[in-house]
Amino acid sequence: MDLEVLRRAPLFATLDDDVFSALIKELNEVDLSRGSSVFHEGDQGDQLYFIISGKIKLGRTTPDGRENLLAVLGPGEIFGEMALFNPAPRTATATAVSETRLAGLRHESLRNVITTNPEVSVQLLQALAKRLTRTNESLADLVFSDVPGRVAKALLDLADRFGRPAPDGVLVAHELTQEELAQLVGASRETVNKALAEFVQRGWLRLEARAVVILDIQRIRQRSR
Ligand code: CMP
């Protein structure tokens, strides 16, 4: 297991070496291929997960089968922690969008660490506060922004977390299909395709398989406002 990713994760960065080493022994490794889920909305769960490599989408399905993505998470991020604070079934389905390696930790084990290392709970609260801020922003965008604006914003957010420099811009290997991108911005695939095509036609983007290259980040930023 690549322990470096975990050691650098904000949740663990402040732990003493011996506490970290003890915690590592309690982790269980989970490998997922694209499309496999680690748990489903409504399941009972007593573990949280750290992403070691790859990407996880968190999605909810309506009773009539439509899907909405809450988030796409990458290395160093955690999910599945909500039941630790609010014992209830899983609030979303967690599915790999690429080959993904996770480290699972039982809620009970984390609770023990928190008792002796209160800084860990501060880090968890910080992660939850950030998530709430992001969710509030998405809600405002759903009300106030048009679909191209939301697509531009989603691409910037993905670029912030997964972007790498490319010769002509920023390569964002988001691993999402256009359907999944549409589920992330809360619009139909057709409308999202149209927005992407318009960005391409203006020279702001290049589309690749499950990736984009942002050629003009300034324009994309302006369009996201
Ligand atoms: P849990 O409810 O145990 O399982 C689903 C997980 O999805 C949940 O814990 C959180 O870790 C994560 N999750 C739920 N809502 C959001 C959100 N809005 N943004 C990011 N992650 C979320």
UniProtKB/TrEMBL annotation:
Ranges for domain HTH crp-type: 145-218
Coiled-coil stretches: none
Superkingdom of the source species: Bacteria
GO CC annotation terms, alphabetical: cytosol
MF GO annotations: cAMP binding; DNA binding; DNA-binding transcription factor activity
Matches recorded under Gene3D superfamilies: Jelly Rolls (2.60.120.10), Winged helix-like DNA-binding domain superfamily/Winged helix DNA-binding domain (1.10.10.10)
CDD domains (alphabetical): CAP_ED
A biological-process GO annotation: positive regulation of DNA-templated transcription
UniProt keyword terms in alphabetical order: Activator, cAMP, cAMP-binding, DNA-binding, Nucleotide-binding, Repressor, Transcription, Transcription regulation
Organism annotation: Nesterenkonia jeotgali
Protein name as it appears in the record: CRP-like cAMP-activated global transcriptional regulator
Keyword Zinc: no
InterPro entries, A to Z: cNMP-bd_CS (IPR018488), cNMP-bd_dom (IPR000595), cNMP-bd_dom_sf (IPR018490), Env_Response_Regulators (IPR050397), HTH_CRP (IPR012318), RmlC-like_jellyroll (IPR014710), WH-like_DNA-bd_sf (IPR036388), WH_DNA-bd_sf (IPR036390)
A Pfam family this chain is assigned to: HTH_Crp_2
Domain (Cyclic nucleotide-binding) ranges: 11-131
